[in-house]
Structure to design on (201 residues):
């Protein structure tokens, strides 16, 4: 809720589509039902539903809310969709939509938990889980590539992304610090750009 409230009002590029609470709950239920993998693996599905298909969010608003949701504790998918639901319909819509989002996973876990514990050493089940893991990794690569293609085409963004990649791969840096450092570097660029522009004139 705090994430959504901190954001400014939509700019003129934002579509004026105003979904009803039922529309939001229906889409959140769909995402919760078919969004396997969680986290970044579901980002492409969320983007497709909310930005491309229904036009409830602008591209910039989606990227801003994703970045802010990464900084909040808890699951990225729940943080992001709860914030978006609050932005679109208020507190009541946020509560109903979040319940719709987690309901399919809750029911599936309850139904399958006992069966999985009984069959977890079965070779078919074991290799099926390994296949699911490989599929999720593939989804993560697809989402990462899609995010790379949407990154602003400025040298500063590529430097920040490359630095975050190297720090994340080779040093035990908490991801929250990478997000904070990236945001800080982007903010500093705003103040430094006019100085370099004046010197070049």
């Amino acid at each position: 809720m705090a994430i959504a409230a901190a954001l400014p009002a939509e700019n003129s590029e934002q579509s004026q589509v105003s979904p009803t609470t039922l529309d939001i709950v229906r889409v959140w239920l769909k995402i919760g039902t078919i969004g396997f993998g969680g986290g970044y693996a579901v980002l492409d599905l969320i983007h497709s539903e909310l930005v491309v298909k229904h036009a409830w969010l602008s591209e910039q608003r989606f990227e801003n809310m994703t970045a802010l949701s990464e900084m909040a504790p808890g699951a990225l998918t729940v943080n992001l969709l709860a914030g978006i639901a609050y932005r679109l319909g208020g507190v009541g819509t946020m509560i109903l939509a979040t319940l719709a989002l987690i309901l399919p996973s809750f029911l599936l876990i309850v139904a399958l938990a006992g069966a999985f514990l009984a069959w977890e050493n079965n070779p078919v089940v074991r290799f099926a889980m390994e296949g699911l893991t490989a599929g999720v990794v593939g989804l993560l690569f697809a989402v990462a590539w899609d995010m790379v293609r949407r990154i602003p085409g400025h040298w500063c963004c590529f430097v920040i992304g490359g630095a975050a990649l190297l720090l994340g791969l080779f040093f035990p840096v908490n991801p929250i610090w990478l997000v904070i450092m990236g945001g800080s570097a982007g903010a500093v660029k705003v103040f430094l750009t006019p100085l370099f522009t004046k010197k070049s004139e």
Summary: DSSP finds nine helices and no strands in the chain. The two ends are 45 Å apart (CA to CA).
